[in-house]
Amino acid sequence: MALALFSCKVKYGFKGISIPPEAKTISVIYFQNNASMANPVEAQKFTEKLRDMVSAQTNLALTKQNGDLQFEGYIADYSVIPVAIQSTDQAALNRLTVTIHVKYSSKLEPAKNFEQNFSRFFDYSASKTLTTIESEALDEINRQITEDVFQKAFNNW
Asked: Average pLDDT by consecutive 10-residue portion of the chain (157 residues)?
């Protein structure tokens, strides 16, 4: 019975996530800014948000590069468009949309590797400027995108 118990290979999971038991390290490579209009700090903010999430929700050691599991990518798009017109020449709402291209690699489970764009948006009143809402908007957008990326990598959605 003990032999059967120790010879089984089981993935461990916590907080609803599934990580190969052999995984010990994870890398989140700095996400570059490839979008023409992006806030200069967005790449750093997103990279740090993803690092914070994997540190808080896994027990893997965060390494600068070559982790057993690895995230890398870039800010692909950053745009503001009107979404609700209130009169012929004026918008009632504007939408900030951020798209981040993510590549996830697992040395232990290559079948789970992916490369995909993740997009989220934040609507705000046209009476406000992007500068006044940008920090709050980016915090919310980055939270949503990092959750999407984490779910895709570790919950197989």
From this structure: 39 61 95 93 96 94 95 97 78 93 96 96 94 96 97 82
Domain boundaries along the sequence of the chain: 15-154
Rg of the chain in Å (alpha carbons): 19
pTM for this structure?
Answer: 0.85
Burial 43-73 (b: 16+ CB within 10 A, else e): bebbbbbbbebbeebbebeeeeeebbbbbbb
Q: Which CATH number fits domain 15-154: 3.30.499.10, 3.30.160.150, 3.30.70.1350, 3.20.20.140?
A: 3.30.160.150
